[in-house]
Design a protein that fits this description.
Elements lengths: L1 H17 L3 H12 L18 H4 L20 H9 L6 E5 L2 E4 H17 L7 E5 L4 H13 L2 E4 L6 H11 L3 E5 L3 H10 L1 H6 L2 E5 L9 H14 L12 E2 L1 H8 L15 E6 L9 E5 H13 L9 E4 L6 H13 L3 E4 L8 H8 L3 E4 L1 H13 L12 E4 L6 H13 L6 E3 L1 E2 L6 E4 L2 H5 L8 E2 L4 E5 L15 E6 L6 E2 L4 H7 E3 L5 E11 L5 E6 L4 E3 L2 E3 L1 H11 L3 E11 L3 E10 L7 H12 L10 E4 L12 H9 L9
Parallel strand pairs: 1-11, 3-4, 3-5, 5-6, 6-7, 10-11, 10-12, 12-13, 13-14, 27-28
Antiparallel strand pairs: 1-2, 8-9, 9-20, 15-16, 16-17, 18-19, 19-22, 21-22, 22-23, 24-25, 26-27
Helix pairs in contact: 1-2, 5-6, 5-11, 12-13, 15-16
Amino acid sequence: MQKKFLLQLKERLTKAVSENNIYDINLIEEYLKNPSLLNEEYYSQEKFTGYASIDKPHIKYFKKGTLDVSLPKMKMYDYLYLRNKNNLNYIALNFYGRKITYREMFYNIEQVAKSFLKMGVKEGDNVVISMPTTPESVYMLFALNRIGAVPVELDPRTTAKDIESTIKESKTTFYITMEDCAPMIDEILTNSRTIKSQLQKVMFISPTQSLPFGMNYLSDFKDYIERMKGIKPKVPIKDEYMNWDKFIKNGRNYQGKIDSLYKENEIAEIIYTSGTTSSPKPIGYTNETFTAMVRQVELGENDYAPRDKNLDIIPLFLGFGSNNGVYTILAFGMEDILIPVPVIDGLPKLIEKFKPNHILGAPVHMKVLLRYLQTTPKSLQDLSFIKSLVCGSAALESSKQYELDEELSRRGCKIKVGPGYGQNEAGPGICFSSDSFLENKKPGCSGYPLIFTTISIFDPETNKELKYGADLEGEIRYKTPTSMKGYVFDREEETSKYYQVGLDGTVWCHSGDLGKIDSDGGLYVTGRIERQIGRSGFKFSPAEIEDFIVAHISAVESCALIGKPDEIEENIPILYYSLKPEYQESSAVIRQEIITLCQKLKEYKIPADYIERDIPLTPNLKPDFKKLEKETLGLKLIKKTN
């Protein structure tokens, strides 16, 4: 065994030297210093050097030889087809009861690819897609990948100003969105000569396009009546506007080449962050971001199997949605149940209706499910069909996890809630919970790194790596094959801040999160280096809202946005603000101005209450956020119901 391992080590060293892979060279050097690493004991050792980047203590959870497996080097569409070429009769997509096989899905992807090419979209072009998760969204994602173009995924709730900015910086000539967004897009084109001269075509897609036969006709008829009555906006008739049917028909006679060649580290998709820092940033995912995620999930313990059903409630325009919610699910040959509308309170009913084997959600989803199971004990009595329940996006309190675990167990479910950790920049998941990990789940632990992912803790001031298993807190930094290529559209400076060369001479991703690693390699996320608020699965910086208000309302002296912890939404934003002395008498008017201004924000960023008061200061004359946080805990809010 030792001789075989040494030969493998020699081959790995030769490759590392030829590729100038400093990390692997240093790692092999550590192997040679420690004879105990040169045999199978490597997979059972708990501690070697004390540094997670070298010891990788979580390796013991994986099968021997897993590290020797290679990762796919191909386009994400090609890998998806390769994995499903024998599954063509399986169900790929389920849209309100319309079941689309893998054969039909691949056929539709090819037709959409032809239509894009016929429209003049070519390799390297960006196409902005502002859509919910529908079959058409899935087809377009993979069709653009086939021809070498790049989908720029945008939240349909994006403001007109941000839409203009995205169109300009992406240099797109083709914008795709829902019919209900037509008035806003038409207004943008009417008022902006720059946008009008840049955009050649706009496609408005009906969300009912792929509904089951009969249901789509009823829905279209209802839309027609509502548009006639003025309840729903009409889509203007213009040469540059088209619908899905016209788009597909236009490409049917295309006879040219479809597929572009694979290029390593080529951007395959662009998504926007949810605004953890000052503003959302465009992230460039590569083909490897998708394919390496699938391979790493496959090499870890999981219960994914062909023909399993996944309840897809994470929007495709989020990294967690497109990569983990759609691509990984389809790569395993599963049935992806597409839910295009935001779902929180309706989750239990969807589980009851579809009986999914797998659910990927945010803490808010887990809390809603827990509350439902606790308050309606006679409902959902049999949950034995659930094989995995993954909680991403943000941390779910351990007490809630264990309560939900108990409720699931009472209903015949053999699994526990699986916490994870990641960032959009990471592709987005880098830490997961395997079956063996969940058997002895530890409070507060977010799982351990994926097999080819390295995570360690660093002192953010000295940049020195901290030892694991010693309860030392620092910044979480990582290396992963699923990482983004970088922030795109001329954001090289921001990219260089995220990717930095460490003291070991290798490049590390700086998460901005604080955490620690236990002796088994489990990760604990303890907070942020900078402030942020998490709400309903989204994260954003309070400073973004504070700066926005002060910049637009001159009467405001200062303000502070504080998150009030909430069992369902995770946090509810409360805005504290103070007025300049000369505006004190206009307090009521200015309050209304602030409320009106905040309505322009994305829904999850809108404060639930507005409190006028002096902003307390620390001895260093900085806003005392800690004091406001304590004050916020005692507030009683009257929640509005729709």
